[in-house]
Amino acid sequence: MDLINNLLLGFGVAFTFQNLIYAFVGCLLGTLIGVLPGIGPLATIAMLLPATYGLPPVAALIMLAGIYYGAQYGGSTTAILVNLPGESSSVVTVLDGYQMARKGRAGPALAAAGLGSFFAGCVGTLILAGFAAPLTEVALEFGPAEYFSLMVVGLIGAVVLASGSLLKALSMIVLGLLLGLVGTDVNSGVARYSFDIPELTDGISILAIAMGIFGYGEIIQNLSHPDEKREVFTGKVDHIFPTAQDFKRMLPAVLRGTTLGSALGILPGGGALLSAFTAYTIEKKTKLQAGEIPFGQGNIRGVAAPEAANNAGAQTSFIPLLTLGIPPNAVMALMVGAMTIHNIQPGPQVMTSNPELFWGLIASMWIGNAMLVILNLPLIGIWIKLLTVPYKWLFPAIVLFCAIGVYSTNNNSFDIWMVALFGLIGYVFIKLGCEPAPLLLGLILGPMMEEYLRRALLISRGEWSVFVTRPISASLLVVALVLLTIVLLPAVKKKREEAFVED
Amino acid sequence: MPLVSQRDFLSGLMFMIVGSSFAWGAVDYEIGQAARMGPGYFPFMLGLILVGLGALVAVNSFRSGPPGGDRIGSIAWRPLVFILGANLLFGALLVGLPSFGLPPFGFIVAIFGLVTLSGYARQGCKLRESIILATILAVGSYVAFVKLLNLQFPVLPWFLAN
C-alpha cells in the first residue's frame, strides 16, 4: 500500500539522529513555553525561525512543528496547577483541572491531559497521513479562480470562528492583506508603499510583525496590571496514574474530543483553541453518570476531552497547509514563512517534489507525541519548578530573544526598529480590543490572493463572473456565504457571543 | 447620540484612516482594469473595503457594546516606553547609528543595555537584579547564538574589535 510505503519513508527520515534531536528540542521548547504563561507558540516560532536558517529544511520544520503541538501539552500543566492557562488553547482545561488539583487529584488530571493528548496526537497524525494524498489530488485540479475562492473561504472561516466582533475581525484581515502588499509588486516591479526605504522593497518582515504584536504587545499588556498572585501547587504531585473508574470516564471523552478536534482542526480558522472550546461545551451537554462530580468542580472528563481535542486540532491543522498551501491559522501562517525561507513553496506539489520532507514531518509528529508524554508525565517535577520562576526574570529575556531573533534574520538593524513600531501597534490593538491573529493570516495571504485574482481575471478577460461559473469556485464561495449568514443569524449570533464570554 | 463602545468607535476610525491612506497611495500606482490589473488595483480595492468596514464598526459603536461604555482605560506608559526603548537601545548599541555618530558597541554591551532598561518597565525594579540577569543572559546568548548557532553579530565594541 502506498500509505505504508510513504510512512516507512517518513519514519526513515524522522528516525535519523539529527532529526530525532530536533524533534526533541522542538517538543522541549514547546512544553517550556506552553508551561510559561505569557508567551505562546506564535512568538516562540517567530523568535526561532532565524535560528533554523542553517538547518536542513526537514529538521527546521520538524522542530517548529514540535513547538506548536508541544505547547498544547505544556499549557495543560499550568492550567491544572496554577489556575492560569499556560496557552490560550488550555483556557477550558482550567475550569475542571484546577478544581481537581485543589482536591488533591492533580496527578490524575495531568495524566488525563497527557494520555488524552497522546491518543489524540496519534489519531491526528494518522488522519493527516491518510487525507494528504487524496486532498493533494483535488488541489492539483485547482485553477487561479478556485484558489482565490478557497482563500476567501479560509479568511471568512477564520473570522467566523474567531472570538469577538465579526466586523472588527474582518477589518483586521483586510488590514493584514494590505500590509502584505507592501514591497515590490512581482508583476510590474513597482515598489509599493516603500517610501523610498530600500529595506521596505522586500516587504515588511512577517517576523517583525509577529514579534512586535504578539511578543512585545503582550508583554506591555502583562506588565500593565500589578503582579497577579499565583497559587502554585508546588508540592509533590503523586498518584499520577488515574484509577480504573477514571479511565472508564475518560475514554469516551477522549474519543469524542479527538473526533471533534480532528474535524475542527482542518477547518479554516480552526486549530487547537476552537477544538478545545467546542469539546468542553459538548462534554458539558452530556448526561452525568451516577456519582460523577459535576463539571466545573473537578470532573476528569472536563480535562480529558478539551486536551485531546486541542492536540488533535493542532495536528490536523497541518492538512490545509501541506496539501493546499493555505494556512488555516496564524501559527500555520508562520510555518508558510518558514517553508518559504527554505525555498519550499507550500502547496500540493510539496508531496511530490519533497516526499522526504512531507512524510518525514508527519512521522516526526508521531515520534514527538511519544516524546511529549515522557517529557510531561514522569518529568512533571521540572515543569513545576519552572512555574515558580517569576515574570520579572522572564520578560527581559523574551524582549532580548525577540530583538536577537529579528536582527539575525537579515543582519540588519532596520528590522529591530520595525519590531518596536509593531510592538506599539500591537499594544494599540489590545487597547482597542482588536484580535490580531486574523491580521497575520491576511498578511501571508495578501500577495497570494492578489496573484490568483490577477491570473483568474486575466484568463477570463476581466469577467468577474468566472468565480461563479466555475463549479468548484462557485461552491467554495457559497460555503463562505453560508458561513457568514449563519453567524449573522440572530440566534446563532447570541449563542456565539455567550460562548466566547464564558472564559 | 451617546457612544456605547469607545473602543469600537476608535477602532472604526483607525480602520477608516488606514484604509483611505492605502487607497490614496494606490492612486499613485497604475490602477488598470480587471483584465489587466495594475499594481494599484488590488490595494485600491482593499483600501476602499477597509474604509467601508471601518465605517460600519464606527456606526455600530453607537448601537451595541458591552456595558460600561467599553472604555479604553489608562495607557500603560511605563512598560510601553521602557520595553520599546530597550528594544531601540539594543539596536543602536549593537550596530551603532552612523548618522548620529554613534559607533557600534556590539552584542555584549547591547544585551546589558536592553536587559537593564527593560527591567524598569516593572515597578519596583532593582538594578542589581537586572545586572545579574543581564550577565546570565549575555553569557547564555553568546554561547547559544554566536558559538553554537554561528549567527553573525558584532560581538565586541568598536575599540576592541579588530
Automatic annotation (TrEMBL), chain A:
Is ATP-binding found in the keyword set? Answer: no
User: What is the superkingdom listed in this entry's lineage?
Assistant: Bacteria
A Pfam family assignment: TctA
**Which InterPro entries does the entry link to?**
DUF112_TM (IPR002823)
| Residue ranges crossing the lipid bilayer per the database entry | 20-39, 51-71, 110-135, 147-166, 173-191, 203-220, 321-345, 357-381, 393-410, 416-446, 467-492
Q: Which keywords label this protein?
A: Membrane, Transmembrane, Transmembrane helix
Q: Could you tell me which residue ranges the DUF112 domain spans?
A: 20-441
Keyword Transport: yes or no? Answer: no
Q: Which PANTHER family match?
A: TRICARBOXYLIC TRANSPORT PROTEIN
> Which named protein is this?
Membrane protein
Query: Which organism encodes this protein?
Result: Hydrogenophaga electricum
Q: What is the lineage of its organism?
A: Bacteria, Pseudomonadati, Pseudomonadota, Betaproteobacteria, Burkholderiales
